[in-house]
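Team,

Forwarding the record for the chain on the shared tracking sheet. I've put the sequence and predicted structure together so nobody has to dig through attachments.
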Amino acid sequence: MDWITKLRARRAGILEKMEAIVAAIPEGEDMTADQVTEFEALKAEDDKVAADLAVAEDLERRRAAAAVPAQPLPGLAPAPGATAPAAPKEKGLTFARMIRTIAAAGGNSYVARQMAEANGDSGLFANQNMGSGPAGGFLVPEDVSTEVIELLRPASVVTAMGPRFVPMPNGNLTTNRRATGANFGYQGEQQDAGATGYTFGQVKLSAKKLTGIIPVSNDLLRASGTSVDRMIRDDAVADAAQVQDRFFLRGQGSDYTPKGFRYQHLGTPFQATHVLTMTASPDLQKIDNDLGRLELALGNANLPYNGAHWVMSPRTKMFLTNLRDGNGNKVYPELANNQLRGKPVHETTEIPDNLGGGTESEIMLVHPMHVMVGEHMGIEIALSTEAAYKDANGTMQAAFSRDETLMRMIMQHDIGLRHLAAVSILIGVTWGAS
């Protein structure tokens, strides 16, 4: 199979040279003697490669026809006439295997290719331009990065809701933001129709660079296996999802960071109607009313709040889960299935419990149909065995002395609301605070 791949690649190179010769001929003129000689030599070479390729492909067909299927293990044979299903491809493992191979090769793309060939992964870096990434790394191919992004979406609270994903090929996107609906009305014969149209604002998305550094033990990288690939993949997805939620939910917004849901309403008329404060001295009725106020904020803006999603901290969710009425019955038993008042619930520690006086939290009600997530580029990876980094305690660590490889992953995206009324927020929430 490798022989066939090499022959096809060689033939493609020959044809490119032939096309270049033809393209260099001025319009209305003939080939020069040197061009004719070179073109005929390339034709002869192409004929030879084509003949070799035909032999190789014929041999491959014969080998496939003569192949004997492996015998199934006792007791695991498929029923007569049934076809055993193919094992599903686990998403994200190709990404992790590429990282592990590049890291084991010390960031040298040529060595990584050789290692992949030696390990039976000859197609791992096929047709990939390894020189397009940063020093010591690479730009992850689109098909591979797409798999990781697909895993990241359900891991992130915000993207798990199912917002609208829009591409930003140039890193920027400006689109209309709906403010009011169309002006429809009834009229009599020969009367002028009212002007029909939307009132629009604008939502501007610009790519913000999300960067994360993940230290990986070189002992793990030296070991090859699916379990190691899963560990690398899962660490990358989990860490990226957590930071993404932090800014998509509560980022204050700057030239370099997204503006999250919490601050999208600032300076707009929706700040008064959609940023609400918890009713003081909460009891069962006040809590239920506050949840209804969030729903009503969406409903009054003609948004079907039944399609919205709740976002809250684990403390708030646990409080509502344990809340009981005067008869000892749970007030919201559906929370056992992550539902509240008929809508999905997402819990995340990126909604803090120490706001305000140190005990306050927030609850958000989000309609994902009007949330836009702009995505630019794919995933860019860089690796280093010498760089330093700060651990969770803020202590500087050296990758070299710890025998680690640092993986830096970069993605670029932004978030905005196509309709500002699609998010309502309850602030000052002390439910469950001790």
